[in-house]
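Lab notebook, design round three. We kept the backbone fixed and only want residue identities now. Task for the bench partner: fill in a sequence for the structure below.
Input structure tokens:
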């Protein structure tokens, strides 16, 4: 049985976060007095994760200062998408075999219990990948989760590509995953960047797994707002309010 303390985590903290209109990089923006990326790392530690690898890029020194010591750092020299960012951690994990957590840095209300549930479910299920999702009343532009009859993930549909019926789905992708290594890096090497932004997207790995009939599970958060991403000033204000109300641990 795999123990959570042996499972590494990759936190993606290389982005600029231009929509935040902040003076510091988005990952270093504070929620309730603590940088968002540090809050994510704290949740990982609380779940028993002892090895954390942060992928830095934009204003790396500021993000590194926000995270502090006892973190491994790798660098994404060019911001070529989330899939490319994860691939930057491949060398750090070249001798590792087993589950790995991948999380965005801008989910400040994520808790240790959310992470622990994800790891436990992934290990017990034997899935090729497990992702955290949330049911929200106003999913807006967020990616929708399509499930098969057996409950496994069939697809992640971006709002711009969704049908009118699919837009009614309230289950959305949070941006926290558990994958298997080395399978994850094998699939990342196959990603294409033939999209409007010419970037390599981590979500495309889910699409490949599904197309190859590999099992992808979705674990729904018990507290939906724990999975909210902070992209705008309005998101930040909401996160501050929820945190003050005891919305994160």
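Proposed sequence:
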């Amino acid at each position: 049985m795999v123990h959570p303390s042996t499972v590494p985590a990759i936190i993606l903290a290389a982005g600029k976060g231009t929509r935040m209109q902040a003076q510091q990089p988005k990952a270093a923006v504070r929620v309730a007095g603590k940088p968002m990326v540090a809050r994510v790392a704290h949740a990982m530690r609380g779940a028993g994760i002892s090895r954390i690898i942060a992928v830095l890029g934009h204003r790396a020194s500021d993000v590194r200062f926000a995270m502090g010591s006892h973190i491994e750092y790798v660098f994404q020299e060019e911001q070529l998408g989330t899939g490319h960012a994860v691939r930057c951690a491949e060398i750090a994990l070249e001798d590792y075999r087993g589950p790995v957590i991948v999380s965005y840095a801008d989910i400040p209300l994520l808790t240790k219990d959310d992470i622990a549930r994800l790891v436990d479910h992934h290990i017990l299920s034997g899935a090729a990948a497990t992702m955290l999702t949330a049911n929200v009343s106003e999913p807006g532009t967020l990616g929708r989760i399509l499930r098969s009859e057996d409950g496994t993930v069939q697809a992640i549909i971006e709002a711009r590509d969704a049908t009118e019926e699919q837009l009614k789905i309230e289950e959305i992708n949070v941006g926290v995953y558990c994958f298997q290594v080395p399978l994850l890096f094998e699939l990342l090497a196959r990603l294409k960047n033939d999209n409007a932004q010419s970037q390599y997207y981590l979500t495309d790995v889910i699409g490949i797994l599904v197309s190859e009939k590999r099992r992808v599970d979705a674990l729904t958060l018990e507290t939906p707002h724990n999975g909210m991403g902070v992209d705008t000033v309005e998101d930040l204000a909401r996160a501050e309010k929820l945190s003050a109300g005891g919305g994160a641990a």
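Keep this in mind before ordering anything: The two ends are 27 Å apart (CA to CA).
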